[in-house]
Amino acid sequence: MNGVILLDGPMGTELHARGIATPLPAWSSLALETAPDVVRAIHREYAAAGATVHTTNTFRTRPAVLGEGWAESARLAVRLAREAVPRDHRVAGSIAPLEDCYSPQDSPADRDPDGTRSAHAGLARVLADAGCDLLLCETFPHVEEAWLATEAAVATGLETWTSFTPGPSTDLLTPAEVGWAAAGACDRGARAVLVNCLAHHRVPDYLDALTKAAAGREVLVGVYANAGWVDGESGWKPAPLAPDEYAGSALAWRDAGATILGTCCGTGVEHVAALARAFAR
Q1: How far is CA 244 from the centre of its chain?
Q2: Biggest alpha carbon distance in the chain?
Q3: Which range marks the domain in which residue 235 is found?
Q4: Exposure b/e, 11-29, CB count within 10 A at least 16 = b
Q5: How many domains does the chain have?
Q6: DSSP character for 7?
Q7: CATH number, domain at 157?
Q8: pLDDT tier at 111, thresholds 50, 70, 90
Q9: How far is it, in rounded angstroms, from Cα 138 to Cα 92?
């Protein structure tokens, strides 16, 4: 695909579209118990659409959310992804903030950095042992917590990508802060730095900051953006954004230096298919 690595799209949005309950706080991870066949099918459809890196449904597989069975749920999420996609595709283990990904002012990294590092290390180890090909620390608005998660992921020996979010309204991190955060993640061993969970029309300034942070390093840069808005019950409400419109924006992101591209909340399989068609051309 002309040098582009194509990520899959959101799990929660696709589950919601198929009538699968995704209530907070468990959100999409609840489907690991209630609808594992649907989770597997969504992975399969993203692969058929053209994605070659597939993110595990582990955004909320934490003890505080799922209790004692959290590790088994994380292992199941890896297994469902692995069963659904071709052998030559890669499975990326998702590692998310311990608490609300839209509230950086109240991160556990401020209150208990050692405990935060340990918690991320626990999930990273489970994902690595379950057979992930790489680890994706994603949707971090709190820079220090992202760095702790990155360190924990790198310690497993797996390739690690780190993605920051300025939030759906881009009010959590400025482009300059994302650039500074990305540089710190690179210093800690991240092999790719990304921005995600922001409106697609706000990407260019953040992408510019990422490419400057990665300049002179053997580090990839990536983007996966939103369509829609936060919902207090289901987690996210999609908004109309034509797949070809999203793909047109992504072509510009590629030309600006992004080589890892995918889609985030409010998008779906059709958006990934549109990306595959655009990059193939």
Answers
A1: 21
A2: 49
A3: 5-280
A4: bbbbbbeeebebeeebbbb
A5: 1
A6: B
A7: 3.20.20.330
A8: confident
A9: 11
